[in-house]
């Protein structure tokens, strides 16, 4: 079974409120401290409940980590893709809306934490590869609509996507949102300009 299908199958199991607390706390720890911090006893301690209660909601740490990955796919990818049908205006307008949607620090920190996790976990890396491929396909489509060749669209999509992902690596702390958006606006003008 494909890795993305594995995560999707888990999502059909609607979590109760208590299991959602475990997932949300695990996500917060992943973002703040990295994947090694997401241990059952550490999460239980953060929630101020017994470790034993964990097993009412999850079979194992691996089960919790699958739920965390499902959460990431929903929040940082599927919600973004769900915006596509409602986007209006020119391809450039649509690119701008999507780029803005990924500018917030919460989105960026979550994405960064999962990418760091993916460097150590082949399954997570495979899920990220699928997400990246889909996002690149969408971006390339918009640049193609603007009249660029397939190669030109690929380069522009790659620069836009890598630019939005890579800023987390270079800025600590993050510049204010207004400054990031202004930088993205200028970059988009350059990327959409025909030679």
**Secondary-structure element string:** HHHHHHHHH
Euclidean distance between termini CA atoms:
44 Å
Radius of gyration based on Cα positions: 19 Å
Helix content: over 70%
Main β-sheet description: none
Q: What share of residues are in beta strands?
A: under 5%
Unreliable spans? 1-15
Assembly level = single chain
Mean pLDDT: 87
Number of strands: 0
Shape: elongated
Structural class: mainly alpha
How many domain units?
2
- Counting DSSP H or I runs of 4 or more residues, the number of helices is 9
Describe it for me?
- The chain has 195 residues and is an all-alpha fold.
- The protein folds into two domains: 1-82, Orthogonal Bundle (Arc Repressor Mutant, subunit A), CATH 1.10.10.60; 88-195, no CATH class.
- 73% of the residues lie in helices and 0% in strands.
- The longest helix is centred in the C-terminal third of the chain and has 24 residues, at 122-145.
- Residues 1-15 have low confidence and may be disordered.
């Amino acid at each position: 079974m494909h890795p993305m299908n594995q995560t999707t199958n888990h999502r059909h199991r609607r979590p109760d409120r208590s299991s959602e607390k475990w997932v949300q706390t695990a996500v917060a720890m992943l973002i703040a401290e990295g994947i090694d911090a997401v241990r059952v006893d550490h999460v239980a301690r953060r929630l101020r409940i017994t470790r034993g209660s964990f097993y009412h909601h999850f079979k194992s740490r691996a089960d919790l980590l699958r739920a965390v990955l499902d959460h990431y796919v929903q929040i940082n990818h599927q919600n973004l893709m769900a915006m596509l049908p409602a986007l209006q205006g020119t391809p450039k307008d649509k690119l701008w809306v999507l780029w803005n949607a990924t500018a917030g620090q919460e989105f960026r920190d979550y994405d960064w934490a999962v990418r760091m996790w993916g460097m150590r976990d082949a399954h997570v890396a495979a899920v990220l590869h699928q997400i990246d491929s889909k996002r690149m396909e969408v971006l390339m489509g918009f640049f193609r609509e603007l009249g660029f060749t397939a190669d030109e669209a690929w380069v522009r999509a790659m620069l836009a996507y890598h630019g939005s992902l890579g800023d987390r690596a270079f800025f600590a702390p993050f510049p204010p949102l207004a400054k990031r958006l202004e930088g993205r606006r200028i970059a988009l003008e350059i990327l959409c300009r025909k030679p």
